[in-house]
Design a protein that fits this description.
With 368 residues, the protein is of the alpha/beta class. It has one domain: Rossmann fold (3-Layer(aba) Sandwich). Helix content is 33%, strand content 18%. It contains twelve helices and ten strands. The two termini are 27 Å apart.
Length: 368
């Protein structure tokens, strides 16, 4: 496989055979603002102020983080990790998988898996892995394998790996406000019900989803096998977005890999693609202050790798370019330009291909 590596933050992978890994032939690119009604072309958006120094960002970061956390609505206190119960153990080749459950202290019992390598010379680095919108923990841990099946390869590289079912996925389908009436393949009815109910209660579905991941993180760092100072987060699609949002609000995450959904919101509007993302992650007020670069900037100077196809419907190319430019400058003021990298795969859609997995593992081995 022949690669051309650009010197900028963006890396274009030119490889024969990538077409076979695409989910389908991508449609022609929508030109920015073409077909967008005039009333929506001149909306007032807040603008992220790119810091000129690390000292300036230290002060600015506090305000940005407050805005991001406030957009998530009320977040109830999290329960103790001591309440987590192990319900089964499955010994694999070189590692074991424990299935656990916890009650999130508000509205749900949450099932998850943790994979633990057999060989442990000391406390190990760990990865919190997050599935996509129509996926589950079983897809990531090999019980119902898809392209998101990463637990085995990470465990065999010496990482502890943890992952849970999201609010409307996997074993949690049919556990929303309408019970089994919402137990369907994609869980979209349950997603909408939870979105509406949380708004009534002063919360957001996105905030509650991230809160569940924080509870899983609380449990992860409590495990004696884990080095709490070497925690990474990775995911695809909805899991990618959760990974960088989680790191933005929780500094315990020391490195991030996001596959797909490297998304800038204004540019999503510009290509008429708000429909490309589920309602789960829409939060009030954020665009009054800044776009998604404000959230992602909170990761700096912690390592952040974005892996995205240029035909990913939920990741407008113009938006990715802007994110690359802005985030490169934020990392540069910290003196760590190499800690942010964006890899854009040409003629590639919404996928998690083998090259992405190789890069994901290499990123965590380097920075954890």
């Amino acid at each position: 496989m022949k690669l051309r590596i650009a010197k900028s933050a963006s890396i274009l992978i030119l490889a024969a055979g990538l077409a076979a890994a695409q989910d389908k032939t991508p449609p022609p690119l929508q030109q920015p603002w073409e077909g967008v009604p005039e009333a929506y072309r001149n909306l007032k958006y807040g603008k992220f102020a790119i810091p000129s120094s690390a000292a300036q960002w230290k002060t600015q970061r506090q305000r940005v983080r407050q805005i991001v956390i406030a957009s998530l609505g009320d977040l109830p206190p999290r329960p103790s990790p001591s309440n987590v119960r192990i319900v089964s153990t499955d010994q694999k080749d070189g590692y074991r998988i424990e299935k656990f459950v916890f009650h999130n202290g508000v509205d749900a019992t949450v099932p998850g898996y943790i994979a633990i390598p057999d060989k442990r010379p000391g406390r190990l680095p760990a990865i919190l892995t997050m599935h996509g919108h129509s996926s589950t923990k079983d897809n990531m841990f090999g019980y119902d394998p898809t392209s998101q099946n990463v637990a085995e390869m990470l465990a065999k590289q010496g990482f502890v790996v943890i992952g849970i079912d999201n609010y409307f996925n996997g074993e949690r389908k049919g556990s929303g406000p309408a019970g089994d009436l919402e137990k369907m393949e994609r869980g979209s009815d349950m997603e909408l019900s939870l979105f509406k109910l949380n708004l009534w209660l002063g919360r957001t579905l996105w905030g509650m989803m991230l809160r569940d991941e924080q509870i899983a993180l609380d449990y992860l760092v409590s495990r004696p096998e884990v080095d709490p100072n070497r925690i990474g987060a990775q995911g695809m699609s909805m899991g990618s977005t959760r990974a960088w949002w989680l790191a933005a609000i929780d500094d315990r995450v020391k490195a991030v890999v996001g596959v797909a959904c490297f998304t800038r919101y204004e540019d999503l509007i510009a290509i008429r693609a708000l429909r490309a993302h589920g309602i789960y992650y829409f939060v009030p007020g954020l665009l009054k202050h800044f776009d998604s670069e404000g959230v992602m900037a909170l990761l700096a100077p912690r390592p952040f790798l974005a892996l995205t196809g240029d035909r990913d419907a939920g990741s407008p190319p113009e938006g990715m370019k802007k994110l690359e430019q802005i985030l490169s400058q934020v990392y540069k003021v910290h003196g760590k330009p190499g800690s942010f990298q964006s890899v854009i795969y040409p003629e590639t859609g919404h996928v998690y291909n083998d090259d992405m997995k190789v890069r994901m593992i290499a990123w965590f081995r380097k920075f954890l």
